């Protein structure tokens, strides 16, 4: 559950990278959808001294300035965050609840001591829904899904927005069945300017309260999240008396991936080319020719035949194309890539070196 909460806060605090912003900002469904299919490098910096954080907590209302530059920070962690459109074959994606999910966030830490994690989300015109997730730890897969989706936040999402949602989880531990009830409550109480050592951005601030009840015992976490339409965010964690117990700011950098039309020449035949470079450590380019307008699917599989990435899934017009695949966070080994364009199919192999 801790991983799910972290994924929710991570997703919301850095959701809107790459968009323009104004002092009083609002997010709709399209802002959430814009990240799907992208990969980002995430860096988190934790406060080493909480002196001065309380003043930021107490600063609420319209057109405020939260200045984090007076707080000492140190790098805490880095991660690769990949936003995957569903359906796709990922750890935990076989859970029945995931059938109605819209996308997943694959979080791979830059540290070998951290587990990879997959959090699943759904989108409607009125809410972002959380489904739960899965974690791979030392080769063992752990799943943690709600019985029904929980509302992560309302849509549209802006100053004055409030939401509350409750969902249950059924967990079996050594033959004992436990029911966990999670209630999540949010309130966008402020907007203004966030100032960090990484830069200054416009933001909204919301308080996120998560109550988890198991066997009559309830634990509560409080977080103040400063979310922006940029690559910078911040989070302050509070105890029950609203005293800061942790604080951090985060940055994201987009990874150069995606499909690109190479030129205007129309190929005479469909063709898939060898990827280059191959072998590679971080990214490789896959080129292919489309001879006529057709639905195109380009996927990557491991040697067990499991789909690990969907690179292209759209209708393309005739022309030569290339796709830069960033394999940050992928285990080293041999992978297969396969294209299907109308009746044309072909495949190739590539080697990820670590």
In short:
With 354 residues, this protein is mostly beta strands. The protein has helices at residues 2-13, 29-33, 53-58, and strands at 26-27, 39-47, 61-67, 73-85, 103-109, 116-123, 127-137, 140-154, 157-158, 162-173, 176-196, 199-214, 217-228, 232-238, 244-254, 258-261, 271-272, 283-290, 294-301, 307-316, 319-326, 333-341, 344-352. The protein starts with a helix and ends with a strand.
Low-confidence stretches: 1-7, 16-22
Helix content range: under 10%
Number of domains: 2
Rg calculated over all Cα atoms: 22 Å
Q: What string gives the helices and strands in order?
A: HEHEHEEEEEEEEEEEEEEEEEEEEE
Name the overall outline.
globular
Query: What would the average pLDDT be, to the nearest integer?
Result: 84
Question: Can you count the beta strands?
Answer: 23
Content of β-strand: over 45%
Please describe the topology of this protein.
Blueprint: H1 2-13, E1 26-27, H2 29-33, E2 39-47, H3 53-58, E3 61-67, E4 73-85, E5 103-109, E6 116-123, E7 127-137, E8 140-154, E9 157-158, E10 162-173, E11 176-196, E12 199-214, E13 217-228, E14 232-238, E15 244-254, E16 258-261, E17 271-272, E18 283-290, E19 294-301, E20 307-316, E21 319-326, E22 333-341, E23 344-352
Parallel strand pairs: 3-11
Antiparallel strand pairs: 1-9, 2-4, 2-15, 4-5, 5-6, 6-7, 7-8, 10-11, 11-12, 12-13, 13-14, 14-15, 16-21, 17-18, 18-21, 19-20, 19-22, 22-23
């Amino acid at each position: 559950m801790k991983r799910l909460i972290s994924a929710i806060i991570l997703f919301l605090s850095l959701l809107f990278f790459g968009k323009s912003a104004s002092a009083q900002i609002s997010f709709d469904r399209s802002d959430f959808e814009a990240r799907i299919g992208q990969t980002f490098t995430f860096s988190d910096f934790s406060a080493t001294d909480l002196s001065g954080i309380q003043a930021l907590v107490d600063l609420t209302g319209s057109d405020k300035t939260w200045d984090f530059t007076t707080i000492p920070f140190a790098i805490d962690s880095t991660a690769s965050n990949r936003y995957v459109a569903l359906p796709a074959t990922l750890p935990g994606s076989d859970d029945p609840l995931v059938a109605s999910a819209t996308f997943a966030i694959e979080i791979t830490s830059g540290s070998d001591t951290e587990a990879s994690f997959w959090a699943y989300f759904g989108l409607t015109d009125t809410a972002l829904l959380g489904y739960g997730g899965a974690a791979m730890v030392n080769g063992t897969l752990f799943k943690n899904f709600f019985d029904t989706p929980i509302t992560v936040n309302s849509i549209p999402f802006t100053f004055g927005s409030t939401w509350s949602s409750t969902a249950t989880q059924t967990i079996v531990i050594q033959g004992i069945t436990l029911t966990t009830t999670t209630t999540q409550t949010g309130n966008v109480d402020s907007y203004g300017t966030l100032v960090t050592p990484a830069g200054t951005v416009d933001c909204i601030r919301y308080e996120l309260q998560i109550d988890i009840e198991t066997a009559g015992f309830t634990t509560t976490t409080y977080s103040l999240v400063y979310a922006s339409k940029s690559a910078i965010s911040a989070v302050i964690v509070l105890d029950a008396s609203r005293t800061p117990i942790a604080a951090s700011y985060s940055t994201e950098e987009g990874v150069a991936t995606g499909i690109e039309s190479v030129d205007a020449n129309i190929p005479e035949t469909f063709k898939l080319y060898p990827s280059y470079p191959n072998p590679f450590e971080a990214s490789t380019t896959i080129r292919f020719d489309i001879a006529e307008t057709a639905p195109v699917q380009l996927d990557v599989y491991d040697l067990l035949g499991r789909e690990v990435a969907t690179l292209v899934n759209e209708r393309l017009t005739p022309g030569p194309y290339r796709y830069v695949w960033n394999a940050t966070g992928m285990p080293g080994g041999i992978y297969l890539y396969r294209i299907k364009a109308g009746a044309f199919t072909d495949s190739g192999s590539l080697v990820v070196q670590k």
